[in-house]
Design a protein that fits this description.
Elements: E1 2-8, E2 13-17, E3 20-26, E4 46-51, E5 57-62, E6 69-72, E7 81-85, E8 90-96, H1 104-116, E9 120-126, H2 133-148, E10 152-155, H3 164-171, E11 174-179, H4 186-193, H5 206-211, E12 218-223, E13 231-235, H6 257-260, H7 280-286, H8 292-306
Parallel strand pairs: 3-5, 8-9, 8-11, 9-10, 11-13
Antiparallel strand pairs: 1-2, 1-4, 1-12, 2-3, 4-5, 6-7, 12-13
Helix pairs in contact: 1-8
The structure holds guanosine-5'-diphosphate (GDP), magnesium ion and zinc ion (ZN).
């Protein structure tokens, strides 16, 4: 029997099958297909199970993964990765028009993370009901910028319902993750998409929210009908601290889609597009062919990497 791991609490894994959810352990001598990863089974994994007479189950095989979302393993063991959600089809960064205002640095770090992990990425800009004339211009600029780079961009409002149905049609297929700072409306959006989730929203200051109300185990929340081949949103404490797995300063520009194909035009092959003479990327910024906002994000991330502090998602 096959299914998808929808909850993981350490030694027990809930596997959603066509017969419902089954609590499973992992077979003792479970063979790891990827021995450089720290965890054998995570939410999103497609697995084969055997049912026990008492109704529980045993995971006997993990199917090959695609689109996994990982972070560096604790202790910075080089090369070791810690997968937090498997088989991610699309990762979304959630921002809001105002309260809090859009943070392009956050978006760009997230997009780099998605490019590193070769996961399709999208941007949700919530609270479109708060658009006024000045915000319209500012937000419109970023919508065009990111859509022009090839990312999916959606404007939504939980208050008016704008864009919510459209988003539901996307999220009810495949495995998705939502990442975003506190207060942008992630929980409100999920409640609007799936009212039976009843997630807590707003009203708590960011400082007090940190200790309380934290997800303590990893879970896939179904969007629409709960079926093994249905749509899910990954919800895990690990999402708050994922980072760039072993990324080097000299390769950072590979993960900026508009820089990727132009780097060969710099004088030095290992150009970091910072201080080097003959840098074509800096010319492109001056010629307005590369957005200065993206270049600034690039330089900020370059500094983080050079300082050994390359975590994103905070
Ligand atoms: N005006 C407006 N407020 C919203 C919208 N979505 C959420 N909010 C409010 O924003 C605050 C934070 O929402 P919440 O869902 O808790 O954000 P989270 O921290 O990202 O989960 C709450 O007071 C919500 O009522 C929206 O589309 N428009
Ligand atoms: Mg929330
Ligand atoms: Zn350069």
């Amino acid at each position: 029997m096959e299914g998808v791991v929808i909850r993981s609490t350490g030694s027990w894994h809930d596997v959603l099958t066509t017969e419902g959810s089954i609590s499973c352990t992992i077979r003792g001598r479970f063979r790891l297909q990827e021995e450089d990863a720290t965890n054998p089974v995570v939410i999103g994994d497609r697995v084969t199970i055997q049912k026990n007479v008492d109704g529980s189950g045993v995971i006997v095989e993990r199917h090959p993964r695609h689109g996994k979302l990982s972070r560096r393993a604790a202790g910075r063991r080089v090369g070791k990765e810690h997968v937090i959600v498997a088989n991610v089809d699309e990762a979304w960064v959630v921002q809001s028009v105002r309260k809090p205002r859009i943070n392009p640095g956050f978006i760009d770090r997230f997009l780099v993370m998605a490019e590193v992990q070769t996961i399709r990425a999208g941007i949700i800009i919530n609270k479109s009901d708060l658009l006024d004339a000045s915000a319209e211009e500012h937000i419109g600029f970023f919508v065009e910028l990111y859509a022009g780079l090839g990312y999916d961009v959606h404007m939504t409002s939980v208050k008016t319902g704008e864009g919510v149905e459209e988003l539901r049609r996307i999220l009810e297929r495949g495995i998705h993750v939502l990442v975003g700072p506190s207060g942008v409306g992630k929980s409100s959006l999920l409640n609007a998409l799936q009212p039976d989730l009843k997630l807590r929203t707003g009203g708590i200051s960011e400082a007090t929210q940190k200790g309380k109300h934290t997800t303590t185990y990893a879970e896939l929340l179904p969007i629409g009908e709960a079926r093994p081949d249905g749509g899910f949103i990954g919800d895990t404490p690990g999402l708050r601290e994922f980072g760039l797995v072993g990324i080097e300063a000299a390769e950072l520009s590979h993960y900026f889609v508009e820089l990727r194909d132009r780097m060969g035009e710099c004088r030095f092959p290992n150009c970091t597009h910072d201080h080097e003479p003959g840098c074509r990327i800096k010319e492109l910024v001056e010629e307005d062919q590369v957005a200065v906002e993206r270049y600034e994000s690039y330089i900020n991330m370059l500094r983080s990497i050079q300082l050994g502090d390359a975590d994103v998602g905070r």
